[in-house]
Amino acid sequence: RLTIVPAAEVITMDERPSQALRGKPDSSMRVALQLLRDDKAQAVVSAGNTGALMALSRHVLKTLPGIDRPAMVAAIPTRRGYCQLLDLGANVDCSAEHLFQFAVMGS
Fold first, then answer.
1. Burial (Cβ within 10 Å: 0-12, 13-18, ≥19) of residue 99
2. Is 81 left (phi over 0), alpha (psi -120 to 50) or beta?
3. Which residues contact 11 (CB under 8 A, 6 or more apart)?
4. Pairing state of beta strands 81-86 and 73-78?
5. 96 and 90 Cβ atoms separated by less than 8 Å
6. pLDDT at position 87, please?
7. Whole-model pTM?
8. What pLDDT, on the 0 to 100 scale, is given for residue 2?
9. What does each of the 107 residues of the chain score in pLDDT, given as a tens digit?
10. What angle in degrees, to the nearest 10, is found between the helix axes of 28-37 and 50-61?
11. Spatial separation of the C-alpha atoms in residues 98 and 103, rounded to whole Å
């Protein structure tokens, strides 16, 4: 089942994450994340501005206790099913602590 939900604004690929966060309260990304937060959606998929999606995710969804930043995940096919790969490049300067947090999220 699909439901179409209107959103009046679009975040372009060249917008800074701060612009998307502060200047687009009715963007399709923000609306999708709010639906996820409110249990009205089961997932959010985007082919848009990754930096904006990460900033909005952190703002709208928050993070788990002890987790500083979100990580993107992909299901990578293997011979026995799928492997979940976290942090696909959105975080360019990760500390050892951040890598540990990604491992916690992926376990």
1. middle
2. left
3. 20, 24, 27, 28, 29, 48, 49, 52
4. antiparallel
5. no
6. 76
7. 0.81
8. 84
9. 788 999 999 999 999 999 999 999 999 999 999 999 999 999 998 999 999 999 999 999 998 899 988 888 888 999 999 988 887 766 678 889 988 998 888 88
10. 40
11. 9
CA dist 53 → 37, 41, 83, 97, 103 (Å): 14, 16, 23, 22, 21
Per-domain residue ranges of the chain? 1-62, 64-106
Helix H segments across the chain?
A: 17-23, 28-37, 50-61, 96-106
* 3-state SS assignment for residue 82: strand
Structure tokens belonging to residue 81: 């099913």
What single DSSP character describes residue 27?
A: B
